[in-house]
């Protein structure tokens, strides 16, 4: 007792009045320090620092156009042919033929070999074999898990890591009820003089056919790669890719080792116009994913003598609470949207001054206003906001079986897309907190993400089987020769230097989710662009189409990218 008192008030005890004054002095001192810090931060931000503009531009360096240097007469001829009407006509026929194979993948597909609906993929493979004879004679090709297609064009220099190009053969099913809404039947491959129509035209047959056309012509032109080229085509991307990409990726990691590939390009984002500039935004990250199943167990009984709150009422309260506590927009330093904002600030004439003021600058670390930036940027709308915000949506609900029986088991499924920089465990922790609050109120037990069996009077939380952390972010440095610099240089060679490159973020997931071990340099990117076509070609909906110009650009891009990667001085 005595010791404790000594510790608390060493020396002579002060009079109560002196103590009170000291307390106020401390408080005022602290307040003054905070205000001073605020003032210094604001002053630093307000000062127009001499090197600021140059520094800002350096935050988003643009590489020079990169054109393959090897120019044999037949390669020259090939490049001319790629720009010819003859090629255009042939390419239209090849694309149209590919769309005519209805390679739909259904959510409820059974095992391969048992469920006959998979067999359409045989037709797809046969179509490719017939259409690209040189690819199928000059390259090694193998089938992985029956329908996965893996092509290897062996390079002469084994010290170079391979370039991997991906696409998927399958398409989203066309619902019977929507067939009538199509201007042209979904599997006719109709060409209207400018566009090729049909399910899969832009997602993802333009890339599948585009890659094969590029390689077919390179073989024909006598091109001999130094760097191995791998083509990896899954067949169930639209239903999560486990059978296709999942198996192909592990074959490739076994073959080339962890981080054994130089680069991967798969389907993804394209061109995005903002602030008076046109950006190509290859996806360098993907958000995470977690479904959480919540189950409320409450006593049953006859509804003529109900308790004040039954399972449905309690679940409703929990859902209301979940929705009342959404995730804050947050721009973590690795989020590509922050990089995109910097590119806007560096190059775009109409970049909003308000956003510019909130961007992290060259001197601040302590004065970061990251979250204010995220909040301001989020005002551009939900499409933008969810590029840097974990989303939550209760999507499925059930409970109760009969009008005179109280619900004993009520279930809800809450879907989340996890922000870059956060983790599925953040989602779990937040939901556990909220469930505990409700549980306390109604005297229920919480089983949060454990294997324990459900008990009466409980709330159980379980993570769904598709949980996926946010993807590792692809490096976008252009110092020296990097995969991103080759990709950027190729794109600017094709489209000109008015077009800017900036890091992008995929709101959904692609087949690349299985390939994280194969390389850090993964780009989700649709290289074909027709300035006349707005939007994404109606993917996943009626009247999907691809512009022929965009498709031809796709072929040209792959052809150039393969050669540029071949000449790139990097492992
Ligand atoms: C391409 O097709 C169009 C329309 O069928 C035809 O008029 C044109 O002559 C063809 N061009 C070449 C070079 O084959
Ligand atoms: C809460 O539940 C426990 C057993 O589950 C019971 O012993 C206790 O009396 C309950 N308390 C209230 C306030 O209902
Ligand atoms: C093609 O897709 C675009 C979306 O990118 C859509 O606006 C258009 O109506 C579709 N059809 C044609 C012929 O462009
Ligand atoms: Zn796709």
TrEMBL record:
One of its GO terms (molecular function) is metallocarboxypeptidase activity. InterPro entries: Bact_exopeptidase_dim_dom, Pept_M20_carboxypep, Pept_M20A, Peptidase_M20, Peptidase_M20_dimer. Zn(2+) 1 binds at residues 203, 238, 540. Residues 284-442 form the Peptidase M20 dimerisation domain. GO terms for biological process: proteolysis involved in protein catabolic process. It comes from the Eukaryota. Keywords: Hydrolase, Metal-binding, Protease, Zinc. Zn(2+) 2 binds at residues 168, 203, 266. The active site is at 170, 237 (proton acceptor). Belongs to the peptidase M20A family. This is Peptidase M20 dimerisation domain-containing protein. The lineage of its organism: Eukaryota, Fungi, Dikarya, Ascomycota, Pezizomycotina.
